[in-house]
Amino acid sequence: MSLLDDPPSTPGKFKMEKSPYFHRVRWHSSLAKLTFWSFVFLGLIFIFFFRSPPSGSLPSDPSRRSLRTSGWGGSAWEKRVRSSAKVRSRNGISVLVTGAAGFVGTHVSAALKRRGDGVLGLDNFNDYYDPSLKRARQALLERTGVYIVEGDINDSALLKKLFEVVAFTHVMHLAAQAGVRYAMENPGSYVHSNIAGFVNLLEVCKSVNPQPAIVWASSSSVYGLNTKVPFSERDRTDQPASLYAATKKAGEEIAHTYNHIYGLSLTGLRFFTVYGPWGRPDMAYFFFTRDILKGKSISIFEAANHGTVARDFTYIDDIVRGCLGALDTAEKSTGSGGKKRRPAQLRVFNLGNTSPVPVTELVSILERLLKVKAKRNIMKLPRNGDVQFTHANISLAQREIGYKPTTDLQTGLKKFVRWYLNYYSGGKKASG
Ligand SMILES: O=C(O)[C@H]1O[C@H](OP(=O)(O)OP(=O)(O)OC[C@H]2O[C@@H](n3ccc(=O)[nH]c3=O)[C@H](O)[C@@H]2O)[C@H](O)[C@@H](O)[C@H]1O
């Protein structure tokens, strides 16, 4: 076997370069290398010019799973975009909803459309969880007249085009890489969506005229290791326990910057464990339901010394009202042409339920609703980003945006279970 067949992989093996045999083959190998790299170079040019989609493309990112963007542009497409974003009520707003095929995105889009606002969705339909659920949500929205453009928030050309076609008054930014534990598996996807994607969106929003007001999803996870309860917006948020939390916290700081420099009106909403019909299969209430029904055991986390793990579970309809309240009270951005004229609104609100429930109690409610006993496997809370409890103080949101949650966990889960049984009967399988 020659040296070229067995390239050195350790510094030690490089000593072989001194061999006279190596000098004899070097000239031939250089020619071969030159030919090889010329082919690679020509190949790359071919791929770049002839194979890239005509209508904007995604930056390559190996951290993404199955990320497709279908073609956009053309007069029929623009007509569809305009029609979906058309305001149909007096004093209505036109909203670009990113992550519209997501759980919260679907509900918010439908609610806005119902009251006569113009709504255009944007979603990349990635396969973080079962994309068929996203497609089903899309079909639901289509029936209400909401069109979802398939694309990524990192695609500047697409975002610019959307603002060229429609002068959106508001952006409801819900596209994100969610999930606390998954951040250990795929950190790049959090940076891609929650940081790079958010910055890209803000870059476009700051440049358009008029600038939209932006309401976006932060997270209760920014409170991290904070132990002061209930969590108030004034509490410290500099101890994130997961990369997910850190990217959401970074988002809050990034929002501050764009507000400060460019006069963008920005409102961050710290959602507390949102659940309900059409929910996310990666969340505990959802996969507990699936596994209990299948007779599979479920892992229930407990803290040190049998400490209770609890969440301020918040029902989707309450969250939707919070989102609409934030949109309705958002002041206009104050910049144009990338320059700020005067200070703009910058807000952060907790959207929780203010009554934490232990995860063991969540399971008991599910058992009663499903009429099946769960196979409980009590486990130590893993050190992968989960915090022991969350509890929202919502007085600021109550005062400023009229937020008032009304659904307790029992009532909300009843609605979820009804939806779940209905959705997954008829051949559909819960996965993700
Ligand atoms: O408020 C948020 O900002 C976040 O809410 C949600 O995170 P979490 O509150 O962690 O929800 P979720 O995973 O459903 O776990 C619920 C409970 O079950 C416990 N849990 C979980 C898994 C398991 O196998 N066993 C278990 O006991 C677990 O320890 C926890 O106590 C969103 O996913 C996230 O995207 C973000 O929006």
From TrEMBL:
Enzyme category, top tier: isomerase
EC code: 5.1.3.6
The NAD-dependent epimerase/dehydratase domain, residue ranges: 95-332
Bilayer topology annotation: Multi-pass membrane protein
Coiled-coil intervals, chain numbering: none
Annotated InterPro entries: Epimerase_deHydtase, NAD(P)-bd_dom_sf
Pfam families: Epimerase (PF01370)
Family statement drawn from the similarity comment of this UniProt entry: Belongs to the NAD(P)-dependent epimerase/dehydratase family.
Protein known as: UDP-glucuronate 4-epimerase
Organism this protein belongs to: Acacia crassicarpa
Organism lineage: Eukaryota, Viridiplantae, Streptophyta, Embryophyta, Tracheophyta
